[in-house]
Amino acid sequence: MIRFDILTIFPEVVEPYLSTSILKRAQEKRLVKFSIHNLRRWTADSHRTVDDKPYGGGPGMIMKVEPIFKAVSALKNSKVRRSNAKSNPKSKTRVILLSASGKPLTQRVAEQCARRYQRIVLICGRYEGVDHRVAQYVADEELSIGPYVLTGGEIPAMAVVDAVTRLVPGVIRKESLEEESFSLGWRPEPDPASAGTVQGEYPQYTRPEVFYPNLKKKGTAWRVPKILLSGDHRRIVAWRAQHMRGAKKH
Questions:
Q1: Is position 187 within any domain?
Q2: 97, 134 Cβ separation under 8 angstroms
Q3: Which element (helix H / strand E) includes 76?
Q4: What CATH number does the domain containing 92 carry?
Q5: CA distance 158 to 155
Q6: The three-state (H, E, C) secondary structure of 104-145, written as one string
Q7: Residue 240 phi, psi (nearest 5)
Q8: pLDDT tens, position by position, 117-140
Q9: Which end of the chain is more exposed for a tag (fewer CB within 10 A), N or C?
Q10: What is the mean pLDDT of each run of 10 residues along the chain (250 residues)?
Q11: Residues 6 or more apart from 220 whose CB is under 8 A from it?
C-alpha cells in the first residue's frame, strides 16, 4: 500500500476526485490510502492564518513556512500502519512541493515514486507562492505538471496521485499498462522555443524573518536573505533576476 497525505487549505477541491472511479476502487481494495489534511490545523492564531506579505515588496501573499513545517513534522511522526512492514522495502516517506519551478512530472518520475516510497506527502501552494524555505528545508523535491501557472497546487497534486496510483500493482491490469504509449518508449518532443527548459520564479519569503525549526535547540535558523530586508529596490530586482530559476538545496 502507498499512502498519500495531501496538505491543502481547500480539502473540498481534492476530495471529490479521490473518491471517484479508479482511485476510489484502489482505496476500497486497500492498495492505496488517501488522507487530506487542512493546513489551517497547524496555525496558532485565532484567524488560522497561513499567509503573509512578501519581504522585499511585491503583489499578493506568500504561504508561511511555519504551518507547513509543523504539518509535515506531525505527519512524519505519526504512526502509519504497514502490512508486513519488515519485508516491505518501500518504507521511506517522500515530501513533494507542487511548484511551477519544480522538475517536470514524467512517467519515469511516477514510476520511481510508485517503486520507492510507501508514503508520499504532497504540499499544495496557493496565493502568490510559498515561502522558499519550504522548498529548501521541508520538501525533498519540487514537481511541476507543466510550464504554466495555476491558482493552486491541488490540481498538480491530483495529477501526481493519479499517475502514481495507476502504477501500484493491482490497480490497473498489467496488460493495459504495458500497452500504454509511455511504456512503449514514446516520449514527447521538447519544445524548441524553450530549448527544453522551464522558466521558474524567484524564491519568495514572508514572516518570520528567522524561523527556528527546533525551539529547544536554537542553533539551527532558517533566515530570509538579507537583501530582501534592505529596502533597496534596485538590488532586490537584481537579486530576483539572478535567482529566477530557483536555488538548489544547500
A1: yes
A2: yes
A3: helix 65-77
A4: 3.40.1280.10
A5: 5
A6: ECCHHHHHHHHHHEEEEEEECCCCCEEEHHHHHHHCCEEEEC
A7: -65, -40
A8: 999 999 999 999 999 999 999 999
A9: C
A10: 97 95 94 97 94 94 97 87 46 92 96 96 95 97 94 96 96 68 48 46 92 85 96 95 61
A11: 212, 213, 214
- Per-residue cell: 84: 508486513
Residue type, 230: S
Q: Assign residue 60 a region (left: φ > 0; alpha: ψ between -120 and 50; beta: otherwise).
A: left
| Nearest-angstrom CA–CA distance, 108 and 132 | 26
Expressed in angstroms, the distance from the first to the final Cα of the chain is: 32
Give me the number of domains the chain comprises: 1
- Domain limits for position 27: 2-242
Asked if residue 153 belongs to a known ligand binding site, the reply is no
Residue 249 lies in a domain: no
63: exposed, middle or buried (Cβ count in 10 Å: 0-12, 13-18, 19+): buried
In a domain, 84, yes or no: yes
Cα–Cα distance, 174 to 167 (Å, whole number): 9
Percent of the chain with pLDDT over 70: 82
Strand-pair category, 222-223 with 117-123: unpaired
C-alpha cell at 160: 501526481
User: Does residue 209 lie in a domain region?
Assistant: yes
- Scanning the structure block, which residue is given the C-alpha cell 536573505? 225
- Rg of the chain on CA atoms, in Å: 19
Measured CA distances, 166 to 12, 21, 151, 170, 242 (Å): 23, 12, 26, 9, 39
Q: Which one-letter amino acid corresponds to residue 198?
A: V
